[in-house]
User: Fold this.
Amino acid sequence: MKNDSIWKDNVDLGEIEELNKNLEVDVLIIGGGITGLSTAYHLINKDLKVALVEKRRIGLGITSKTTGKITFLQENIYSKLNKYHDEKTAKLYLDSQIEAINIIRNTIKQNKIKCDFYKVDSFLFTNDPNKIKLIKDEKEILEKFSIKVNEYTELPNKDKVKYAISVSDTYVFHPLKYLSELKKILKKNNIPIYENTKVESITKENDLFVCKTNAFSIKSKKVVLALHYPYFIFPFLTPFKTTLEKSYIGAKKCPSFLEFSAINTNKPTESIRYHKDKGNSYEINLMSSHNIAIKNNDSKNFENLLKSTNSNYDYMWSNIDIITNDYLPYIGKIDNNLLIGTGYNTWGMTNATLAGKVLSDSILEQENEYIELLNPKRGMNLAKIINFPIIIGSSIKSFIGSKINKNKSWYSDNIKFETRDGKNIAIYIDEEGKEHIVYNKCPHVKCSLIFNEVEKTWDCPCHGSRFDLDGRCIEGPSNYDICYKKDS
Ligand SMILES: Cc1cc2nc3c(=O)[nH]c(=O)nc-3n(C[C@H](O)[C@H](O)[C@H](O)COP(=O)(O)OP(=O)(O)OC[C@H]3O[C@@H](n4cnc5c(N)ncnc54)[C@H](O)[C@@H]3O)c2cc1C
Assistant:
């Protein structure tokens, strides 16, 4: 079993070019996930000097660990938008998702991208009789918006369910193959991509942003923060606006590729899709989404995935996404020259693609009908602020829990916690007896870390930053590493 995402296996990410000089550009895109590459794609041949920087390899952030469904059937989003906003907002969001699906389909077709892109019907199901009404409401609103919806009591894999609906014209793909082809297209069209190039600070000098990496600086008129978590803007993602949700995924070989994907309405989330590659078919299951600060024992969550799906997996991994409190993403201008794309509510294949179009249109000063809908400076949803004490309470509990190291009982003997030079350190001893030492404190708000024994990462129980065995930051909101230095 591989403790990593299926998408990272055998994918060619192309050659690495690192930044080796100072630069001055019109537009700098920071972050080489689906948001960054999709934005750069729409800036090809627009008479602008554009560059993209990525701190590791392109695609290896959150996008490499998605389930890769491209669909507008996103749980009961349209009923929620109708309830918390209005019908017009729900319809506009639906239009935006269908437009994003069309952009992905056209990009793949025009560039003949090979990324295991298949048309499959999307299902929404429940096994809880109390949730049937939620799905019926979603059906009603989708039909009002002229979407054809079918009803079932069985999924195409013959699993019996209490109630399900399905829609057509939705897809699945291999997200990393898609991004690696986008990378080639961008490079061919003179948009340089610098990998292993981390932006460490952003300041303003007259009308230019100065983005410093460890050795060089890039001056740019406009900057797009395509970081997943836009931590350079402080404090943008307050708990009033977002929460973080973690899920556990497994992929296993199966006899055949089935042309559907499905998700349930209730928690814990259950989702399924199929993938085929080089004659092999895989079933991909996702189970148990939870707020990052609650139920954060990863080993137990992986165990639950194994038990509830009664499976052995060839690949297992976890992933975190940003959930917005008003159900809409944050895409657009923070000020005239600083733009962000984030908060995709676990539907980033469509929403990041949409971000690519909306952000590039904003940069090019072209009209786009979704700019107002997604405006990152919009007000907060007062109804959802009711959740604030619960979320803050969970974070404080995680923070204190992490400090008293209650979690030690979770770990096997190859994990140790010590104090060296007055600093708390954590040690992982690998199969060959080698010690991997890190500082046991997340640089973001100083929570102590939890060891994820399945993926071999140090994860922050408060805000979801993740670090590899030797302390390199894999995912934010921290932008700093926790590598132990002997003499420090
Ligand atoms: C469990 C799970 C399943 C999901 N399944 C689906 C699905 O089926 N369909 C769907 O539509 N969506 C899905 N999503 C959502 C989707 O995966 C994400 O919303 C999307 O991938 C986010 O893309 P991104 O480009 O914003 O972030 P990322 O892919 O994380 O890209 C950000 C990049 O910025 C880089 N970076 C960060 N800091 C710096 C810095 N200082 N300097 C330079 N580079 C930096 C990172 O290394 C990273 O590569 C899922 C999410 C989860 C959690």
The first helix runs from residue 34 to 41.
